[in-house]
Amino acid sequence: MSKFHRLPIASVERETRDAIAITFAVPDALADQFRFEPGQHLTLRASVGGEDLRRSYSICSAVQDGALRIAVKKSPGGAFSTWANEALAAGATLDVMPPMGHFNVPLDATARRHYLGFAAGSGITPLLSIVKTTLAAEPLSRFTLFYGNRASGTVMFKEELAALKDVYLERFNLAHVLSREAQDIDLLHGRIDRQSERLATLVAQLLDSARLSADSLPLQLEDVDLVALARDIAEEAGPRVKLSADGELRGRWDRARIEQVVSNLLSNALQYSPADSSVELVVAGDCDKAHLEVRDRGVGIPADELPNVFAPFYRSPHSGGQHKGMGLGLHITSEIVHRHGGTIRVESQAGVGSTFVVQLPRSVR
Asked: pTM of the predicted model, to two decimals?
């Protein structure tokens, strides 16, 4: 049966106006008992105003950090959290039970997974431990985290999360959802629990991206006329889309996925082009390959950003605030094209426009 152990406090750091992070100095003799897994919590005991109080707080350090840390956010009327925020300092001691809980999944260094997490306010504490531990333990896996708060000033571990993003630039995607601050993406503004429909769409996109990247999404191949498919999508997109294509161009592709490619490219071109400008959709080919181009006269892409265009969650800082999505459309488009054995590239000049060029073999091998 677990019992309390008196642990000295190594440091107390102010995270926000009403939250602190407490790091314990675990004696060597207790190291095994306080070994933890991501997602576990600690139960603390203290005498506050003559009352014996016990509270549980999630561990927010990674297993690889070599430290035992929790965060305590002051809650209105909370006797323990208020006392901790106002009275605790390095050198003090607290009665602490060994880690408990099973809010985690087994990790595998050979796994290639895409994890998705949602947190709000102080709910970031267990997820911070999970995110950091997972990224370090599974070098082939990725993690996407949505973190909701009222405003940027209330974000706990803001700098630590930003630093984590810098370390795992290609594998950690972080989206702050702020209810009281406007942002350039609708999804990231408002309460996180009121964004269910948009979040459901995003989750579907994330699953698509993960499955395509892992080659775990089978293609439903059938005979498809690319010209007819492009004509239908162009008509639905409206009069701004000008189609250049003749006759038929048949191949064996996944119809739904190729529709997704054409739709994503047209949507992207229309979004970043002046409302009074046209977008050209060109379909051509030979006996071996199909060739598709989408040309716009929009804001264009600076040369130094071109290598990042198809990266997941990439959004250009020079787009003039025209972002409406999360930067997954072009990434998914690229993955679909590659799954068909094809290629995709972009030619662009800032202030002039962009041309996306897709080549697909007429039959997937």
From this structure: 0.62
